[in-house]
Amino acid sequence: MARVVTVGYCLLVFFGNGIVLAASSGQQLRPGEATETHSCNHVRHPPAELSDPQVMRPNGENITFYQKYTEAYGIPILGSSNVTDDALKRACYTVRYLFAGHSGIRAMFYKFGGRFAIMSATEVTLDFPEFSSWDPFWNSRARGLGASWTTPLTTGAEENLLCQRNDRYHPEDIFLHESAHAVDLIGAWAAIPGFRPAVNNAFRHANVTGLWDNTYAATNALEYWAEGVQSYFNVNTKGPSGGNGIHNDIATRDKLRDYDPTLFKLIQEAFPCKNTYLKRCESTREMENNEVLQMNCNSDDHSYRMRVLAILSAKDPSCQDTRPLDCLHWSLSGECENNPGYMLGNCKASCKVCSPSNCYDENDNCPGWSRSGECEKNPAYMLWNCRLSCRQCTRTTADPLVG
Ligand SMILES: *[C@@H]1O[C@H](CO)[C@@H](O)[C@H](O)[C@H]1NC(C)=O
Ligand SMILES: *[C@@H]1O[C@H](CO)[C@@H](O)[C@H](O)[C@H]1NC(C)=O
Ligand SMILES: *[C@@H]1O[C@H](CO)[C@@H](O)[C@H](O)[C@H]1NC(C)=O
């Protein structure tokens, strides 16, 4: 029995169109910031701001279809009038839960227009305005899809969220699986330095050693991540030792910790708080609403996020990376300096060759260091890494830097 929650499709959209990402993303960051609160228990009509194309990336959507709305941290959870309030509330709980722990992932997910939508048991994928032009194949293929960079919408199905008998994936929390993709592709890669390469490396190693042979996690690095997250939160299905094509016997956090410590550690980084996930078949909306979640257990890398945002919002068309994600990661591992021949031509944005998108501090301590005279005492580091605080941004107009 083939499992039908693949987001292999997202791999193509996300990485294949990497150039589109940089070339067209200039105006695509959502205005405002993620909040630290939620109103999961309050389902209402979607607010008018959701018709703003900057909020509903990529093009804005005809949101007439969406008649119901709730939110966690400002992240929308949407549905048509056919979806029950209960389903939206349950989805909102999962979102609230998954995004509680890491302030950076939450911040980036919001900025990139990440959102969720739920279909009723009688609705299908192409009913969502974001997917209306997709191949109808997806209507029978999927009861939930992970987000892609171009369409940062993650979908779920009411029957799965509410643990109903008509659910073809009854034993599994499919919405959590799809949301794990969203955390990865719309949040973590841009919030945790080196996150995506680390997941890819862990997967390559697991593949070489046959760790997940004969399971869905062996499909690719994306499914490896999402299946791992499901096991980490104890909502995966246990299969036989050695696998049955979909699952093996590693289906819980305790098993995963010993079996694949590398993946385990990466998952912990993205979900650093020790909150208890209330399982969908054992929980009520009241229990979920009453649960107090610990938040922001991450060590925040604010300057990394600022750098990612600066690169993505570079508006100068002559200042683009030809391979945005690769360039970003290469630049962060010192390649602009080590390999300038290639990098300064092909990774202009990431190597900060152009201005003014390169005008920011690399380190949160820059303003303080600058005030205590470090721009003058330690120019080799400071004039590059603390450009804003050391007033290097307008250097071309002969800004009179002291010293
Ligand atoms: C938006 O979609 C609704 C149906 O969902 C349709 O009646 C309406 O005409 C559409 N509006 C625009 C501006 O396309
Ligand atoms: C959704 O609800 C509307 C209005 O009640 C109804 O006309 C429509 O058939 C429903 N659609 C689906 C797919 O359930
Ligand atoms: C796993 O490794 C094998 C052997 O190196 C390779 O042929 C295969 O493409 C890899 N699988 C994936 C999904 O990367």
From TrEMBL:
Residues 1-22 form the signal peptide. This is ShKT domain-containing protein. Pfam families: ShK. One of its GO terms (molecular function) is metallopeptidase activity. InterPro entries: MetalloPept_cat_dom_sf (IPR024079), ShKT_dom (IPR003582). SMART domains: ShKT (SM00254). It comes from the Eukaryota. Residues 32-51 are annotated as: Disordered. The keyword Signal applies. The keyword Methyltransferase does not apply. Disulfide bonds join C359-C393. Residues 319-354, 359-393 form the ShKT domain. Keywords: Disulfide bond, Signal. The lineage of its organism: Eukaryota, Metazoa, Spiralia, Lophotrochozoa, Mollusca.
